[in-house]
Amino acid sequence: MTDRIDRKLSELGLALPAAAAPVASYVPTVDAHGLLHISGQLPFKDGAVITGRLGESVNLEAGAAAAQACALMLVAQIKAALGGLHRVERIVKLGVFVNSTADFTDQPKVANGASDLMVALFGEAGKHARSAVGVAALPLGAAVEVDAIVQITA
């Protein structure tokens, strides 16, 4: 599976970043009975967090790109935790948090940046349940944060 995902990333003009280290008192991943829980990941571009607020300083297209960057970091965390992507059975759920103004209501469209990448990379196994919610602020001023639950083999 890792080779197929590497090829797909290349086709999309994307590359996995190095898995980010935690910025507070938590671990990046926890394997609980075959479900890998991945802590919220922030969007990075060129080593810096993509910041801003949807409905204010960030447009929908840039928000979706930030969500995609979060998804790339989720995959990087999976690979780091498991030593590869061969144990991924299914992306079970994504939780997408969008730093947005009170009147911004397109959180699901922003979240599609992450969801669409999971399906592109994992095919049917990438189809998942999801939450997409607007929040008043995120760590480091990030535009988006995404966490995940992934079913893995032993």
User: Helix count, per DSSP?
Assistant: 3
For the biggest sheet, the summary is:
5 strands, mixed
> What is the succession of H and E elements?
HEEEEHEHEE
Described by the principal axes of the CA atoms, the overall outline is: globular
Radius of gyration: 14 Å
The count of domains is 1
Under CATH, the topology can be stated as: 60s Ribosomal Protein L30, Chain: A
**Low-confidence regions:** none
Helix-strand makeup class:
alpha+beta
Question: Span between N and C termini?
Answer: 16 Å
Tell how many strands the DSSP assignment holds.
Answer: 7
**Helical proportion?**
25-40%
Under the CATH scheme, the architecture is 2-Layer Sandwich
Percentage of β-strand residues: 25-35%
Reading side by side through the largest sheet, how are the strands ordered?
A: 1-2-7-5-6
State the CATH superfamily name. RutC-like
Name of the CATH class? Alpha Beta
Structural key phrases:
154 residues, alpha+beta, two-stranded antiparallel sheet, 32% helix
